[in-house]
Structures are given as structure tokens and as C-alpha cells.
Design a protein that fits this description.
Order of helices and strands: HEHHEEEEEEHHEEEEHHEEEHHH
Helix content: 40-55%
Number of strands: 14
Number of helices: 10
Distance between the termini: 70 Å
Shape: elongated
């Protein structure tokens, strides 16, 4: 399950990187007809690929044993891809010299006059127009958005005797004191990743349960031969098609040389095991407890549980590191966003892309490195 999720998150990151590159290319090539604002075809392409990929794996996981949680996570990623398809097909603005119509994410269209516009929020990135109590959101990647905003500003000046379209502070609570565009979206991303990391760590913790003899099958048999493969010792019998394995035997098993010398078909072993069917490997019998009838003990159930607990702890430590990094990054971005005047442009770029933060940056650089007066 963890492999599915890790692979899917990696694929999602690749999609985001490819989207960034293609969006830059889109700005250089794709155009839209005059009087129309819509999202690029790139949204449709990325949405179809992402939805098909995650939905396929999610369905496979849904019908696999012990993969239910993974399927839920993958369905969530598929839904994100589907939202790109819906947005591309539905969202649109049509405008002319008299009025404009705005069709939202769900395909609901409303018509507005330019005299209904009361303000604007945002700048070079995502923009929000205010028409009374209604908020009209315009994505930064929307084709033709600059021309539309230019038309809105000109119409506002004509209607209001040359007055500029007023900027409106959006939202009752602004974490960044008005210095960052779309603060609610940043807050959502901070909380989303925090919840995902905490949720995953909790899931790992509660999914661990020590094995008991009731969970295992019991068998007495003799091993005809053995092989060593990538830290595991594989033991073979005459009556079983699948091999028995002691995984990571150097860490947990003991008396290994005796086990090897007794694997010639003459010594009888008592085995507690469970059948495992890895996704990309052949199924095998995983040994949880092993001893022979001569009294030699090679692996106990407590040693197996200690190994499971160690692996769980390693995963917890890894994600604790991710969580610590995210907390530090979030705290740093909030500090920079609230007081950008204290930081250089280069430092601000560690947390925000260019155009999202107003104030600070270049102004601070000029203060630190003033131009020398010509003598």
C-alpha cells in the first residue's frame, strides 16, 4: 500500500512539473478568440491523464486485499484530475463593449453589466472581481484574462468619471496582512499537507499490530535446499511450490549456519508462517517462527514482531522529518509573507514565486545596495 501511495505522489509531482513547463509553452503559443476568456487545453490534457492514471490504480487497489486506504487516497487524486476537466469544459467569460457573462466551475452562467463591478482583488496572479456580493474568480492561467481585465478597468473609468477600479482586500482574515495574493489558497495548502502528514503517521501507528499464533499457519516439514537473495534466506521443500523465507535474517534470526547445514532434507522443522503476495514479486510463505525438532531455535515470534515494529518506526521517523520540514517551511513563509519588507528578494523566492508578494524584495535590495553617485 505504501508503495502505491509513494508512487502516486511521485507521479503527481511529475505532473505538476510538466504542467509548469507546458504552461510556459502555452503562453507562447495558444491563443483564444477575441471577447473570450477560458482555461487552456492543457487543463483538459493533464486532467484526462491524471484521472485515468489514478482511477485505474484506485480500482485495482479497491479489489485487492488490505488496500482499501490506498484506494481512498488514489480516488482523491483522481478527483483532483477530474476537477481540471470540469473546469476546462465549464469555466468561461464572454464579453463585449456592453456587458459580459461569467460561467463558473459548475457551468452556471450569469450576465453582468460593467456598472455592477465594484472592485478587484489580486494583481499578476489569480484575480477576483467583485460585482456586489458576488465574487468572480479568474485563474492566472486563463487565456485572454489580461485583455478582459483591461476592458473592465477602462469601462469602470468611463462610468465613474475617470476613477480607477478600487482594490478590495479579500477575506476577513488575512494571514499575510495583505502582502500576499490569494492568502486563503496558501493557508489551504499549508493545512492540507499538515493534515495529510499527520493522518499518514496516525494510520501507520494504528495499522501496526503484533502477530499472534492465531494469525499464522502451522506446518512441519523438511527443507531440501536454500538460497540467499538480497538479505533473505529462501528455504525450499518437496511438497510446496512456493518457497519459505526468513526476511532480513541477519538482523533477526540466529543459528543461521545450523539452519543452512540442516536444510538437506533430513531435519524436520516446525514453522509458523503466513502467505504473502507482493505486487511485483512472486508469492511466498513468510516465516514468523522457526525451530527444528532437535531443539534449535532460529526465529521467534517476538523477534519477528520486533522487526515489524522497527520498520514501522523507520517510516514514522521519515514522515516526522517531512512534517518538521513542513512546519519550518510554513512558519518561514508566514513570517516572510507578513513582513516582506524585512527580507531580500532572493530570500522571499525560497517561499513564494515572483508576483505573489507585494512589498519588500527589490526595494530592500536597493536599500542594502544603493547606487553609487557619479562623481
Amino acid at each position: 500500500m505504501f508503495r502505491h501511495i509513494a508512487f502516486s505522489i511521485s507521479f503527481l509531482l511529475i505532473i505538476l512539473i510538466v504542467t509548469g513547463v507546458l504552461s510556459w509553452l502555452r503562453e507562447k503559443t495558444e491563443k483564444t478568440e477575441k471577447g473570450t476568456v477560458r482555461l487552456p487545453k492543457l487543463f483538459l490534457l493533464i486532467g484526462v491523464v491524471t484521472t485515468a492514471f489514478f482511477l485505474t490504480i484506485a480500482v485495482i487497489c479497491a479489489f485487492s486485499k488490505d488496500q482499501f486506504i490506498a484506494s481512498i487516497v488514489l480516488f482523491f487524486f483522481a478527483a483532483l484530475g477530474a476537477s481540471l476537466i470540469i473546469a476546462r469544459l465549464n469555466w468561461e467569460i464572454k464579453y463585449d463593449d456592453d456587458d459580459f457573462s461569467y460561467k463558473n466551475f459548475w457551468g452556471i452562467r450569469h450576465k453582468y453589466g460593467y456598472d455592477e463591478i465594484t472592485g478587484i482583488s489580486g494583481g499578476g496572479k489569480d484575480i477576483k472581481l467583485f460585482a456586489g456580493k458576488r465574487v468572480l474568480r479568474i485563474d492566472e492561467l486563463a487565456l485572454g484574462s489580461n485583455q478582459f481585465i483591461h476592458t473592465v478597468r477602462n469601462k469602470y473609468r468611463l462610468i465613474h468619471n475617470g476613477a480607477a477600479l478600487p482594490k478590495v482586500k479579500w477575506g476577513r482574515f488575512d494571514l499575510f496582512n495583505g502582502h500576499v495574493e490569494n492568502p486563503g489558497e496558501f493557508l489551504f495548502i499549508y493545512c492540507l499537507f499538515f493534515i495529510l502528514l499527520i493522518g499518514f503517521m496516525i494510520f501507520v501507528a494504528i495499522s501496526f499490530h503484533p502477530l499472534s499464533y492465531d494469525d499464522l499457519e502451522y506446518k512441519t516439514t523438511s527443507f531440501t535446499h536454500y538460497t540467499i537473495d538480497d538479505g533473505d534466506i529462501r528455504l525450499y521443500t518437496k511438497e510446496n511450490d512456493l518457497y519459505f523465507a526468513v526476511t532480513e535474517y541477519k538482523d533477526y534470526a540466529k543459528n543461521i549456519e545450523t539452519l543452512k547445514s540442516n536444510s538437506g532434507g533430513e531435519t524436520v522443522f516446525e514453522i509458523y508462517f503466513q502467505k504473502l503476495e507482493p505486487d511485483n514479486e512472486d508469492p511466498y510463505y513468510d516465516i514468523a517462527s522457526l525451530r527444528d525438532q532437535k531443539g534449535n531455535v532460529f526465529l521467534t515470534l517476538s523477534q519477528t514482531n520486533a522487526g515489524i515494529r522497527k520498520n514501522m518506526l523507520q517510516v514514522e521517523i521519515l514522515f516526522s522529518g517531512f512534517l518538521l520540514f513542513w512546519i519550518v517551511f510554513t512558519g518561514g513563509s508566514i513570517a516572510v509573507g507578513r513582513h516582506p519588507e524585512k527580507y531580500s528578494k532572493r530570500f522571499i523566492r525560497l517561499f513564494f514565486q515572483d508576483g505573489y508578494v507585494h512589498g519588500g524584495g527589490a526595494a530592500n535590495d536597493r536599500k542594502k545596495h544603493p547606487k553609487k553617485k557619479k562623481s
